[in-house]
Specification:
With about 290 residues, the chain is an alpha+beta fold. It has two helices and 22 strands.
Length: about 290
């Protein structure tokens, strides 16, 4: 019964963490460029169950005629013809020992696009991240809502500079109307009437999805010295990528998780009641 308590408790912990993940997804359903999380759960290794070996071929070793403890052989597992020999016990099956959250994986599937018409609203169709400079170093994002500050530097809503392919901030010349700025599919920024690009936005991707992790504020950071590669995605000007969270699906998952949590909680209550009865009633002396 103790094992049943622990197994049900691991189920409650798993579903509680999954609920937190789903709640965070729903909270960011309207966040530009947000990529939803998925809680990946694994089961603990199952335990092999064996039946106590009670076969006795007529006064087997260690079972005296009076059926009491075999003190002569010293085998304390033999009592009244009952043998707890685990080596020769027949196998009954396997017992699950619960589950745990092994990973919070990021779903990088493409979100839908929203047309804004703003010059510095950018979206990436396909693989890729924008590179921005933060106080903690270079970070990556799919949120392409940029603007030009009073000095003409392209920044995001937190005031972090958008970087070009050389790792420098991008500055739009003074007195240049936004309507004259064109951004190509490869991130090249042109001023209408000029043949040479003003700069090229740094768009990168990583070969391994585990090479970047979420930091918060819709930012990603590289781990284990992962090196970014030029992205294969295309930049779309005047567009923003919406979150890839499907609200209806997440709500259904939330309801499903709540029911699983309740089932595990009921199992814990049942196990506790059985323990109470075994201690206070079954073992009571009349």
């Amino acid at each position: 019964m103790w094992r049943g308590l622990y197994t049900a408790a691991t189920g409650m912990i798993t579903e509680a963490r999954r609920t937190d993940v789903i709640s965070n997804n729903l909270a960011n359903a309207a966040t530009t460029g947000y990529k939803k999380d998925t809680a990946v759960h694994h089961e603990f290794r199952n335990m092999l169950i064996k039946r106590f070996y009670d076969k006795d071929n007529g006064g087997g070793a260690g079972v005296p005629a009076n059926g009491l403890l075999d003190t002569d052989s010293g085998d304390v597992t033999k009592f009244k013809g009952f043998n707890a020999d685990s080596q020769n016990a027949p196998e009954v099956g396997q017992l699950g020992l619960g589950s745990y959250i092994a990973e919070i994986a990021v779903d990088y599937s493409q979100g839908s696009f929203e047309s804004t018409g703003n010059t510095f609203d950018l979206a990436i169709a396909g693989e890729g991240f924008f590179a921005i400079q933060t106080p903690q170093g270079i970070r990556y994002t799919r949120n392409g809502a940029f603007f030009k500050n009073q000095n003409g530097v392209l920044q995001d809503i937190r005031g972090y500079n958008l970087l070009d392919t050389r790792g420098n901030a991008i500055t739009i010349p003074a007195n240049t109307a936004d309507s004259r700025i064109t951004v190509g599919g490869d991130g090249s920024i042109f001023i209408n009437g000029q043949n040479q690009p003003l700069a090229q936005i740094q768009i990168v991707q990583f070969d391994n999805r585990l090479a970047v992790q979420k930091q918060g504020d819709n930012l990603f950071y590289a781990v284990n010295n992962a090196q970014p590669q030029p992205a294969t995605g295309q930049v779309m000007q005047g567009m923003l990528e919406k979150s890839n969270v499907e609200i209806v699906r997440e709500m259904v998952e939330l309801i499903h998780n709540h029911r699983l949590y309740e089932a595990n909680a009921k199992a814990v209550t049942t196990q506790d009641t059985m323990l109470d009865n075994s201690v206070n009633q079954v073992g009571r002396l009349s």
